[in-house]
């Protein structure tokens, strides 16, 4: 016995990862529902060794489930999450729709698990931006040891962050260029194959993009509003895995070896940092893994008390699906929710 779970957007990249990770982590599920728009009704998705069929969101009775994992985009979330929350289940929303709502906790379990106490205000919990999630997992233990005054972050974000259409565009453009075919951009504003694009989201009046603003706004909400943070977000021709170049200024001296030891003890972090040809992690190495990897920890001699390092994680996992499932685990472990059946059995 366990929880009755619905995944809205079950046919997408993140929705399918949610299904896989719920099984991998042995989350106690009594009944699984795959929910999609009417046009996807009847589509099949894999759940364990079974196949389940997508149900129409317009006709589904959400009062029958305990947890709703929402991964169908901001418009769908804005239309449905509050209505679903009022029916009883807790919605874990992967979009940006509620991240800055003061009545909705924004949670990375390794960073601010106590925020789960606010979950019942609207029965909605927000999942952070994929790039923010891995950043704060790396920053949190360092910030606890030596307060971070300022951080400069440049991201190298994979095309899967733009969904299946983004992955298809990289694949199709790569084939077209090799075959002298049509490489005209459709999903991205410029060619992504064999290129990088220093623009994700949409421009704001200050010259930053909303993707960049999400990172500092979410870091301030989850970690510390006093951290000064500037960000440049870049799309790169990588299928899965976001990377970040991070430079941090602390309020006291912190040596690279001390930072390595702090991070090695931190939940969710793996340090791979040797000065040799394979002594660092790339997106290919991180794909399919749960951890946030930190490499290339070194002093930044241009500022007082500065360190620079490299952060990599699978954006479909820790950046989205894994973090959502870990939030569900947190809800269960803290007793914030209990199954409607009243019985919870973990299979180990």
UniProtKB/TrEMBL annotation:
Phosphate binds at residue 99. The keyword Cell inner membrane does not apply. Its EC number is 1.2.1.11. Keywords: Amino-acid biosynthesis, Diaminopimelate biosynthesis, Lysine biosynthesis, Methionine biosynthesis, NADP, Oxidoreductase, Threonine biosynthesis. The active site is at residues 130, 242. Residues 4-119 form the Semialdehyde dehydrogenase NAD-binding domain. Substrate binds at residues 157, 235. NADP(+) binds at residues 11-14, 39-40, 160-161, 315. Pathway: Amino-acid biosynthesis; L-methionine biosynthesis via de novo pathway; L-homoserine from L-aspartate: step 2/3; Amino-acid biosynthesis; L-threonine biosynthesis; L-threonine from L-aspartate: step 2/5; Amino-acid biosynthesis; L-lysine biosynthesis via DAP pathway; (S)-tetrahydrodipicolinate from L-aspartate: step 2/4. It catalyses: L-aspartate 4-semialdehyde + phosphate + NADP(+) = 4-phospho-L-aspartate + NADPH + H(+). PANTHER family: ASPARTATE-SEMIALDEHYDE DEHYDROGENASE (PTHR46278:SF2), DEHYDROGENASE, PUTATIVE-RELATED (PTHR46278). Belongs to the aspartate-semialdehyde dehydrogenase family. Catalyzes the NADPH-dependent formation of L-aspartate-semialdehyde (L-ASA) by the reductive dephosphorylation of L-aspartyl-4-phosphate. Homodimer. This is Aspartate-semialdehyde dehydrogenase. It comes from Brevundimonas terrae. The lineage of its organism: Bacteria, Pseudomonadati, Pseudomonadota, Alphaproteobacteria, Caulobacterales.
